[in-house]
Amino acid sequence: YLVCYYTSTTGIESSELESYLQEILPEYMVPGVYVVLDSFPLTSNGKIDYCNLPKASMVSKESYTAPETTLESSLVSVWSEVLSIESSELSVTQSFFRLGGHSLKAISLVNKLNKELG
């Protein structure tokens, strides 16, 4: 999945940035997670230290919807396996493709769902 790390001197909200990116980028290029930083961690050479960027959570506390039925729990379990994301970070309202899914993973998802749920 795509993560957008950014800094802002004007206090732009992640929802505003996401709306703007949705206008200018194809859907598959729009990040699924936005993380605002005070400053980027830098290496001794002054380049961005990607290893020290904070881990991005796929689900914000406000948008998380837990599975309520056994079917939803089964789906979250399969999605978690296919997308390599902790099941506790998957909300039932999230988009498979925004979480890093693509056509090959979708085929794998369908196969696993057929095996587990018939």
In short:
By secondary structure, the protein is mainly alpha-helical. Helices cover 34% and strands 7% of the residues. The chain starts with a strand and ends with a helix.
Task: Provide a descriptive summary of the structure in words.
Strand 1, helix 1 (14-24) and strand 2 (33-36) form a beta-alpha-beta unit. It is elongated and about 55 Å long. With 118 residues, it is mostly helical. The protein has 2 domains: 1-56, GMP Synthetase, Chain A, domain 3; 61-118, Orthogonal Bundle (Non-ribosomal Peptide Synthetase Peptidyl Carrier Protein, Chain A), CATH 1.10.1200.10. It contains 3 helices and 2 strands, in the order E-H-E-H-H. The protein starts with a strand and ends with a helix. The mean pLDDT is 86. Helix 2 (70-83) crosses helix 3 (103-117).
Essential attributes:
118 residues, 2 domains, Non-ribosomal Peptide Synthetase Peptidyl Carrier Protein, Chain A, single chain, 34% helix, 3 helices, mainly alpha, GMP Synthetase, Chain A, domain 3
What does the secondary structure layout of this molecule look like, with pairings?
Blueprint: E1 3-6, H1 14-24, E2 33-36, H2 70-83, H3 103-117
Parallel strand pairs: 1-2
Helix pairs in contact: 2-3
